[in-house]
Amino acid sequence: MKTTLSLALALLLGCLVSLSALADMVVTDALGREVRLQQPAQRIVALSPHLVENLYSAGLGDRLVGAVSHSDYPPPAHDIARVGGYMSVSVEAIVALEPDLVVAWASGDGGGGALLAQMEALGLRVYVDQPRRPEDIARAIADFGVLGGRPDTANAAAAAFRQRLQGLRDRYAGQAPVTLFYEIWNEPLQTLGGDQFVSHVMRVCGGRNIFADAATLAPRVSIESVLARDPQAIVASGRGETAPPWLDDWRAWPGLTAVKNDHLFFVPPDLMNRPTVRMLDGAQHLCEKLDSVRRDTARNTASDG
Q: From the centroid of its chain, how far is CA 14?
């Protein structure tokens, strides 16, 4: 009788553990959609370079079987099979890889909806990421840990990210605000709006985006509008690891406060424009640059006085 009871209890416990494990495979993505897996994802396709990085941070780099072009970090990502680019994803290539999870990016510009519908119509499980604030990076990494069955690794990475982010915010966000123009391209002249991810990184550093009132995420602006708003600093990103030559083009307007005080800065785009753990390195760099603006401003004010 005792043996039978013990066996029954063991079976019941096993069922409860199985149900608990099953419940742990459920997350809610950035679009408010429930994503449920019956077992940890073993074959993952990522449709943005930043998602590749965040999956590695969650301890799931070995599960990646497909990625889009420009997925170049960390270095092993170069070896992942390509399924196209962000704007030209091949659904056929994705299906051929037989993924049990596809991780996609909703940029917020209204695109991607048709692709999502097509993938789901084919029975693919899709998690959609839409980072708007730095904290969203940690959320996505933690979610990936759940879906991949490696919550301890992912939660540790997310916690470390949050801790360092808070440290930057505590040190810089309350300092005197510095107005800045963030230039992502020169022809056409393009910047970022206030609800774009990088604008929230600026706020961590006490920066104030002069085009925070823009109605779109990546508006085109005129030189005249930049001159009128007269930022204290101009920050260029570009597409490479060195400052773009067009950053110095602003020296043609010596009356600009940023030019007059030589506050023309460069931050590597992969450290700022990609919402990944490396964003903290870009934020640190930006915070230090804006702090130098504060020091120069204080020195100039004292000199004028």
A: 39
